[in-house]
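Hi all, posting the design record for the shared folder.

TITLE: backbone redesign
STEP: 1 of 1
STRUCTURE INPUT:
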C-alpha cells in the first residue's frame, strides 16, 4: 500500500520527537517517583520489583478495581477493603483506580466538560492522599496515557508513588466528547512514556488490550500482534517498559488460558492484571458466581503453571448492574482467596498439550501481523522509527483496516474481517449468534414487513462500548433494513450532520457510560436546529446517569433514567427486540 502516508498523516508537520523526549527528560529531573504507603511498607522501589519477588515466591497476586466519584469515599474504600481482607488473612496487592473520563481533559478544562461515573482528583495532593491510605500498590490504569492530560496526570501519579500507569489501550479507541485533536493526545502520551522511561526505576506502562483494538479484532493473533507492536513502540523506540492486561472479553477457557501462556512467552516485563471476564456477567447475581468461579479458576491455574506477574481480578457479581460497593469487592476477594486454595488440586487434571499448540499458533500469527504492519507502514512512507508516526497511523487506520490489510490469516471473504482467523475471538462470534437468535425469533411476515419498511437507520454510540452497535447493525442487515454507520463516541452535532447527509429517517443510539440523558438532550437540540424534531430515536445499553444537583455535589452512583428518556421523546429499549417490535408498528 504505497500511499498510506498520504491517507493517514496529512499534516504538513509532525511534532519533533527529539523535542518531546528532551522536554520529558527535563521534567524527569524534578518529577520523580514519590514515596507511598505501598513502596514504604514493602521496602521496594517499584511494583516491577515487587511483582518479580512475588513470582519467585509463587504467590498469586490480587487486584481490586475502585473509584467512586468522591475522593472521600474512594479513600475509605482504599483503606477499608485492604483492612477487612487483612483481618481475614487475605492479601491484596494492588488497586486499579477508576478515574472519571473527564480526568482525560487538560486540568483547566475539566469543570466545563461532560463527566462519567468515575473518580475526580482535582490536585496532585489528592493523588498523594489516596495512595497513602493503605500499603496497596496504586495503579492509575485509566484516563492517563492516551489522553490530552496524559503528561499532567502521569506527573501527579508518579509523584504519588504510582509505578504502574496506563492505559495505552485507550489511546487507540477512546474518544473524549468534543475533543478531536489526536496530535495533542499523541504528543502528551509520547512525553508521558518518555518521562516514565527516564525514571530511576522501571515504570509499568499499562495497556489493557480490551480497551484497545484487542476488543475489536476478530483474531486473537492480531491481539497478541498488538502486544508486539506496543512493545516495539514503547520499549524499543522510547526505552519504556510496557505491560499488558487482557480479560474482559475472554469467555472461552481455552482462549483465556492459551492467551496467558502466549503473552507470558513474548512479554519482557511482569503483567499488570488479568481483568475479570465482565462480558460473562448478566442481570442474575447467582448465575454470575459461576461466571466468577469459571474465569478465575483458569486465571489461577494459568499463573500456577506459568507465572507472568499478572494479578488476578475477582470482579464483584453485581458488575453488570452498577459500580460495585466496598462490601461486594471484599466478598469477591474472599471468594478468590478460597478458590486459589482449592485450585491446587486441579493441576493434575490439566493437560497443557492443546493449550500450548493454540498458544504457539497465536504467537506465530502475532509475529506475522507485527511484521506485516511494520513492512506495510514502511512501504507506505510512514517513519517506523518514529513512535509519534507509528501511534498516529495505527490509531487513525483503526482495528478493522489493520486486520483486513495485515492480518496473519489467509484472505477469506465470508469472515467478518475478510481473513481466516488463526484463533477466532469469542466476542464477535458470540454477537453473531445473538443476532441470529434475535432474527430467528421473528415470523417470516414480520421479517418481510421490516425489509419492505424503507427505514434508513443511523446507528451510533455515545462512548467506546461498541458491541451493542455491532449487534444492532448485524440484526438490521439480517432483516434487510439499511443502516448508516454513525460511528463510535460520536458527538450529537456530528451525528446529526451524518443523518442529514445520508438522509436517515430513524436513529439508534447505544450508550453505556452513564451519559444517556445528557446525550439525548444535546441530540434533541441539534435535531431541532435542523428541523428534524420527531425523528424516532431508539436508545439502548446502560440507560443511567449520575444526577448532579449542583456543581460539586458528589452523588456517587448513577440512577436509571429510562422514564426521563421517554419524557424527552426517545424510545428506551431494554433489549433489541423492543426496537424491532416498535418499528413494526411504525409506517413512514
Ligand atoms: C465490554 C465492556 C467494556 C469494554 C467495551 C469493548 C467494546 N469495544 O465495546 C471496555 C473494556 C472497552 C469497556 C470500557 C469501559 N467501561 Co465498560 N463495560 C463492558 C461490559 C462488561 C459489557 C457491555 C457490553 O458491551 N455488553 C454487550 C451488549 C451487546 O450486551 P447488552 O448490554 O446486554 O445489550 C443488550 C441491550 O442493552 C441492547 N442494546 C444495547 N445497545 C442498544 C442500542 C439500541 C438502539 C437498542 C435498540 C438496543 C441496544 O441489545 C442487547 C441485546 O438485547 C459492561 C458491564 C455489563 N456486563 O453490562 C461494562 C460497563 C458498561 N462499563 C462501564 C464503565 C464505567 C467503563 C469505563 C468508563 C471504565 C473505565 N474507567 O475505563 C470504560 C469506558 C471508557 C470510555 N471512554 O468510554 C460501566 C458503566 C457504568 C454505568 N453506566 O453504570 C459498566 C456497567 C461496568 C460497571 N459496572 O462499572 N467496557
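Okay, here is what came back for every position:
SEQUENCE:
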Amino acid at each position: 500500500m504505497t500511499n498510506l502516508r498520504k491517507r493517514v498523516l496529512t499534516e504538513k508537520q509532525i511534532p519533533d520527537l527529539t523535542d518531546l523526549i528532551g522536554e520529558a527528560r527535563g521534567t524527569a529531573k524534578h518529577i520523580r517517583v514519590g514515596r507511598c504507603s505501598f513502596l514504604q511498607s514493602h521496602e521496594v522501589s517499584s511494583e516491577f520489583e515487587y511483582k518479580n519477588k512475588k513470582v519467585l515466591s509463587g504467590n498469586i497476586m490480587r487486584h481490586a478495581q475502585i473509584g467512586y466519584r468522591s475522593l472521600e469515599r474512594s479513600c475509605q474504600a482504599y483503606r477499608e477493603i485492604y483492612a477487612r481482607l487483612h483481618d481475614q488473612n487475605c492479601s491484596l496487592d494492588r488497586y486499579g483506580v477508576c478515574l472519571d473520563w473527564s480526568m482525560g481533559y487538560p486540568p483547566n478544562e475539566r469543570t466545563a466538560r461532560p463527566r462519567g461515573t468515575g473518580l475526580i482528583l482535582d490536585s496532585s495532593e489528592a493523588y498523594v492522599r489516596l495512595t497513602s491510605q493503605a500499603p496497596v500498590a496504586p495503579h492509575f490504569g485509566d484516563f492517563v496515557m492516551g489522553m490530552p492530560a496524559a503528561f499532567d496526570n502521569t506527573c501527579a501519579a508518579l509523584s504519588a508513588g504510582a509505578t504502574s500507569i496506563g492505559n495505552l489501550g485507550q489511546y487507540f479507541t477512546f474518544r473524549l466528547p468534543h475533543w478531536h485533536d489526536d496530535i495533542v493526545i499523541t504528543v502528551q502520551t509520547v512525553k508521558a512514556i518518555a518521562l516514565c522511561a527516564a525514571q530511576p526505576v522501571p515504570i509499568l506502562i499499562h495497556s489493557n488490550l480490551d480497551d484497545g483494538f484487542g476488543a475489536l479484532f476478530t483474531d486473537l493473533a492480531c491481539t497478541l500482534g498488538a502486544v508486539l507492536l506496543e512493545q516495539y513502540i514503547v520499549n524499543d523506540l522510547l526505552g519504556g517498559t510496557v505491560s499488558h492486561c487482557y480479560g474482559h472479553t475472554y469467555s472461552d477457557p481455552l482462549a483465556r488460558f492459551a492467551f496467558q501462556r502466549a503473552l507470558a512467552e513474548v512479554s519482557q516485563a511482569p503483567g499488570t492484571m488479568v481483568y475479570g471476564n465482565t462480558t460473562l456477567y448478566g442481570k442474575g447475581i447467582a448465575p454470575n458466581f459461576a461466571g466468577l468461579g469459571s474465569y478465575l479458576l483458569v486465571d489461577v491455574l494459568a499463573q500456577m503453571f506459568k507465572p507472568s506477574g499478572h494479578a488476578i481480578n475477582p470482579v464483584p457479581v453485581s458488575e453488570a448492574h452498577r459500580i460495585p460497593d466496598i462490601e461486594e469487592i471484599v466478598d469477591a476477594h474472599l471468594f478468590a482467596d478460597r478458590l486459589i486454595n482449592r485450585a491446587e488440586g486441579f493441576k493434575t487434571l490439566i493437560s497443557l498439550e492443546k493449550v500450548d499448540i493454540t498458544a504457539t499458533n497465536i504467537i506465530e500469527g502475532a509475529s506475522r501481523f507485527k511484521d506485516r504492519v511494520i513492512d506495510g507502514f514502511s512501504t507506505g512512507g510512514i517513519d517506523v522509527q518514529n513512535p509519534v508516526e507509528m501511534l498516529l497511523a495505527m490509531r487513525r487506520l483503526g482495528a478493522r483496516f489493520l486486520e483486513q490489510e495485515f492480518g496473519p490469516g489467509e484472505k477469506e471473504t465470508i469472515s467478518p474481517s475478510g481473513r481466516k482467523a488463526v484463533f477466532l475471538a469469542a466476542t464477535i462470534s458470540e454477537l453473531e449468534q445473538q443476532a441470529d437468535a434475535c432474527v430467528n425469533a421473528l415470523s417470516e411476515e414480520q421479517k418481510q414487513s421490516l425489509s419492505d419498511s424503507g427505514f434508513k437507520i443511523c446507528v451510533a454510540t455515545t462512548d467506546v462500548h461498541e458491541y451493542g452497535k455491532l449487534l444492532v447493525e448485524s440484526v438490521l442487515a439480517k432483516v434487510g433494513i439499511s443502516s448508516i454507520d454513525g460511528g463510535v463516541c460520536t458527538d450529537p452535532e456530528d451525528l446529526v450532520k451524518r443523518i442529514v447527509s445520508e438522509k436517515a429517517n430513524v436513529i439508534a443510539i447505544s450508550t453505556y457510560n452513564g451519559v444517556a440523558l445528557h446525550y439525548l438532550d444535546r441530540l434533541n437540540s441539534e435535531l431541532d436546529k435542523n428541523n428534524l424534531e420527531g425523528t424516532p430515536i431508539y436508545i439502548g445499553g446502560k440507560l443511567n446517569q449520575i444526577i448532579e444537583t449542583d456543581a460539586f455535589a458528589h452523588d456517587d452512583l448513577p440512577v436509571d433514567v429510562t422514564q426521563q428518556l421517554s419524557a424527552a421523546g426517545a424510545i428506551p429499549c431494554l433489549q433489541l427486540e423492543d426496537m424491532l417490535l416498535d418499528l413494526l408498528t411504525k409506517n413512514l
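COMMENT: Residues 353-379 form the longest helix (27 residues).
Let me know if anyone wants the other runs.
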